[in-house]
Write a structure and sequence with these properties.
The strands form two sheets. Strands 1-2 form a two-stranded antiparallel ribbon. The chain contains three helices and four strands, in the order H-E-H-E-E-E-H. The longest helix is centred in the last third of the chain and has 38 residues, at about 110-149. The chain has one domain (about 5-149). Helices cover about 50% and strands about 20% of the residues. It is elongated and about 80 Å long. The protein has helices at about 5-30, 60-65, 110-149; strands at about 45-55, 75-80, 90, 105. With about 150 residues, it is of the alpha+beta class.
Length: about 150
């Protein structure tokens, strides 16, 4: 059995959540962006995750040990999707990007929703870090038992 593969699983989760936090931070930073290189207001982005198989025999052994029907897998970022929600229209005739009727198109980003998403990503990252550290502690104890005998 290869305990070190658990590091790959936890590491993939931490990397995926780090990407998610980066995308959420970009959304928060662009809540008032009315012009982008693509034209129009910034569009909210979401990270898309997918299962990532962890190579080796260990994932099969772990799945069998916990009674799972499938192989234990990590996670990876499959891509980043732009929101299809329409922009918010705000009446501000003095804004340089206002249309002839005085409305400005702003990104449809809810800062509260983004903060909840950021907290969720941070908690998921912490859970993967805890699993990583627990595995590291277990390996140390196994090594200590080997030295004692």
């Amino acid at each position: 059995m290869d305990l070190f593969r658990i590091f790959s699983i936890s590491g993939s989760g931490m990397a995926a959540q780090r990407s998610r936090m980066s995308v959420v931070a970009g959304n928060l930073a662009n809540t008032e962006t009315t012009r982008t290189p693509d034209g129009g207001p910034y569009k909210r982005r979401d990270v898309i995750f997918q299962a990532a198989p962890m190579p080796g025999e260990f994932s099969g052994e772990l799945a069998e040990a916990v009674g799972a029907e499938n192989e234990i897998q990590g996670v990876e970022v499959a891509g980043v999707r732009q929101s299809s929600r329409p922009p918010r229209k705000v009446f501000d005739p003095s804004h340089p990007d206002a249309n002839p009727q005085g409305f400005v198109s702003l990104p449809d980003i809810n800062p509260i929703e983004e903060m909840v998403d950021m907290l969720s990503a941070a908690r998921s990252y912490e859970a993967n870090l805890s699993a990583y550290n627990a595995t590291k502690s277990l390996i140390r104890k196994i090594l200590d038992m080997g030295r004692a005998s």
